[in-house]
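Methods: example folding runs. The two proteins below were folded one after another, and each record is reproduced exactly as written to the output file, sequence line first and structure-token line second.
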Amino acid sequence: MQLDHVAVAGETLEEAAETIENALGVPMQPGGLHERFGTHNRLLGLGDGLYIEAIAIDPSAPRPPRARWFGLDRFSGPARLTNWICRTDDLSGALWRLPLAGEPVNLTRGNLAWVMAVPRNGGLPFDNLHPALIEWRSPHPGVVLTQSNCTLRRLIVSHPEAAALRRMVGPLLEDPRVIYEPGAPALAAEIDTPDGLRHLH
């Protein structure tokens, strides 16, 4: 597996995007709609093919027949970094190793196509801090995003059971940028920007 992107959720898409822009000092780029889950997003390209996603429930979309991904049905409060997503070329194999990630859902948006593992209740284990799993069936969106001259330095995954999460995920994801720390459930990213090191929480 490889780190693919991180997501900032908000009660509105504007709040999620503004949180990223204010933290990093760079503008977001347009995204689109996810009809299957009734959400919409904006994107920000990072170095090394990564990106940041601002995501929220689309108020103009009908309620989907199943729980929305990333636990968005239960999201409230300030916009914040909520999820990290890892890509794999073999989602079935990854789910055999990490079955708590959910079940495969086929998705498309414009010329993008992918399969995402989503739990039936929408929320991931470890207080939503278990990585979401994705397998791209189209070119990766990172290749078409305008680069922001921002690069992820570290992603800190804090949880009371951080050691257990590391034992589950670590053997499949060898990425020194991902740090597991005991503490209250939270995600934090350290990002190098044109104006220096910035923090996204």
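Second run, written to the same file directly after the first:
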Amino acid sequence: MYLAELNNTLMKINRIGILFFTLMIAVSCRNDDDNDLIEVPPQTLAETLVTDDADITAYLETHFYNYEEFQTPPENFDFKIRIDTIAGDNQGKTPLSQQVMPKVINVDANRFLETDEVGQIAHTLYYLEARPGVGIQPTIADSAFVRYKGSLLDGTTFDGSTEIPVWFDLASIQGSGARGFAEGASLIKAGGEIVENEDGTFTVENYGVGLVIFPSGLGYFNVLQGSIPTYSPLIFEIDMYAMNDSDHDGDGILSIFEDINGNGFLFDDEDDTDADNFVNYFDADDDGDGTSTRDEISDENGDIILPYPDTDGDDIPDYLDPDNS
């Protein structure tokens, strides 16, 4: 399972490893006629996005999911999303284009070593909540307990854990080639209490069921990842069983609150206050002053002080201000 393996790897590496994990580029193919290698010019993020958007739009207009079963569940319905084409007996079905919601996510071209492009390029992710969960939805910085299936627009399945749920660290995945998965998962509400059955399986009532579709700039882009071709838009079906708030560095501040510029992306330069190549959510001393963040926001009993202390009154809390240690 690509995502599960990727998640386990990313949990063990620091920010530098995460940022460069997706930068291996496959740029050549073999001509079977003369066995010569032919160099294929890499596509830019912007020009790839034009093609991806067109392909995704066409997909959404020509496919539907089993929404009628979700609206009126038949007996023993498994609440799994099933997608089919609008043709033949399905001609009158409502297309996905009328049921999904868009979310615009800016992608920095420099993250893919783009030399001809600079700045942020807006990518549109589409998501569907087929069944809202009764719990809360995770943030992009949290961990999520999910079942999932990943597929290409042509229906080819490339990854998944459709029976046994697995835990994912969404923050780490956001910094990898599977960013769209993490962004989409953060839009789906979790279910109720998790009950472990005698056979080792889990039961969760009223868990969230969703679907996310996104362009390759939110996926693996120009990296050949297993059976996923380069420049491939991806689809994930996600059952959101449960979530946990995360404090990755154990400094007493939830990771989502260490998104300093509040743009929802944890790997910006702005989120590395002391420029030590560790973003704040992964840095136990955010301002690099030699005093841990936890010590700077706690009283003598170890209890967190709210609002966070600002000794010199400059509107910069002590844990982000190297002048106060």
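Comment on the second run: The CA atoms of residues 3 and 159 lie 7 Å apart.
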